[in-house]
Amino acid sequence: MILVTGATGGLGHQTIDYLLTSTPAAQIAALVRDINKATELLERGIDVRQADYFDYPALVEAFQGVKKLLLVSAIAFTDRFHQHQNVIDAAKQAGVNHLFYTSIQRSSDFVMPQVTESDLATEAYLKASGLTYTILKNGYYFEGLGYLIGSEVPQTEIRFPAGDGKIAFVKRSDLAAAMATLLTGEGHEDQEYTLSGSEAYSFADIAREFSALAGRPIVYKNIEEAPYIAQKVAAGFPEVVATFLAQWGAAAQHGMLAETSDTLERVLGRKPTSLGEYLKATYFWVS
Ligand SMILES: NC(=O)c1ccc[n+]([C@@H]2O[C@H](COP(=O)([O-])OP(=O)(O)OC[C@H]3O[C@@H](n4cnc5c(N)ncnc54)[C@H](OP(=O)(O)O)[C@@H]3O)[C@@H](O)[C@H]2O)c1
Predict the structure, then answer these.
(1) What residues form DSSP beta bridges with 202?
(2) Which of 94, 190, 235, 284 has its CA 20 to 30 A from that of 58?
(3) Is 8 near ligand 1, meaning CB less than 6 Å away?
């Protein structure tokens, strides 16, 4: 039995979609914290189990009979490490053999607030747990771009505090496809993989791609963090979120998300989604 946590979220749900292409539903379990969101999973014959990462006894119960477990990391601005510890300990107690953890890409020593410290602590805890592990250092989602620069085609410019920093963006569904392949494959014991896009893009590259698709000049303007945060707050984001978004610019400037690895391409057996493909499908979609 393979269990996927975060099964009502983007990555977990899409991983289950891909698992279903190769694995009978009866061999797939989904961990959800809100059963009301799981109707469609139940209808597809998935073994839905309910527990919150904070509820240790419920996790032990939910993990019974599971051999491989994908721990979809908890969201930022919550006590991520405590939740991950609970899942790892419960997996061990329930007799899970192999735990896969979704970390984030770290191509430099930059510490991303709310993310890196809990990832580092979780990875160390998992390695010391005695469980067989696979650490998946996922690249920054293309889907995150809309939060950083807006979800409409920019009129004339992109304003973001990333300097010349690059990001090897990756589409979440490409990651999900890779998760499903890794979960059903052999030979990933005690391994760490960086699952990035095949190419890293600066925000000037993104502006150029937008220009080509929109057929008008769109430029990138590097701005300081403070005006960027003010602009986001004015657009309705809470200040703490706006500051978090600005930090991805700092992460890009420090190279945290820039390294490209061919692992994802090899696991998928094809090129991951490119910037041009993503922008065209997302920003220039016509119904
Ligand atoms: N690489 C990147 O660019 C990037 C970007 C954003 C996030 N992330 C990380 O990757 C993870 C997966 O991404 P995603 O896009 O799938 O996020 P998502 O859509 O927000 O899904 C997160 C899932 O985790 C579940 N969850 C959260 N807290 C939980 C708890 N205490 N107990 C049980 N389940 C809990 C959520 O349940 P509910 O449906 O009930 O809320 C949801 O199913 C995120 O959680 C975050 O750690 C990575």
Answers:
(1) 166
(2) 190
(3) yes
Query: Rounded to an integer, what distance in angstroms lies between the CA atom of residue 72 and that of residue 7?
Result: 8
Q: How many A from CA of 229 to the centre of ligand 1?
A: 24
Residues 6 or more apart whose Cβ sits within 8 Å of residue 215: none
Domain ranges of the chain: 2-138+172-196+261-268
pLDDT, tens digit, for every residue of 118-172?
999 999 999 999 999 999 999 999 999 999 999 999 999 999 999 999 999 999 9
What is the number of the ligand 1 atom nearest to the C-alpha of 51?
33
Q: In what order do the strands lie in the sheet with 191-195?
A: 47-50, 28-32, 2-4, 68-71, 98-104, 132-138, 191-195
pLDDT tens digit string along 234-272?
A: 999 999 999 999 999 999 999 999 999 999 999 999 999
pLDDT in tens, 50-67: 999 999 999 999 999 999
Query: End-to-end alpha-carbon separation of the chain, Å?
Result: 40
Quote the CA–CA distance of 119 and 240 in Å, as a whole number: 20
Q: Ligand 1 center to residue 184 CA distance, Å? A: 22
- Find the 74 Cα to ligand 1 centroid distance in Å: 5
pTM: 0.97
In tens, the pLDDT along 84-121 reads: 999 999 999 999 999 999 999 999 999 988 899 999 99
Question: How far does residue 87's CA lie from ligand 1's centre (Å)?
Answer: 14
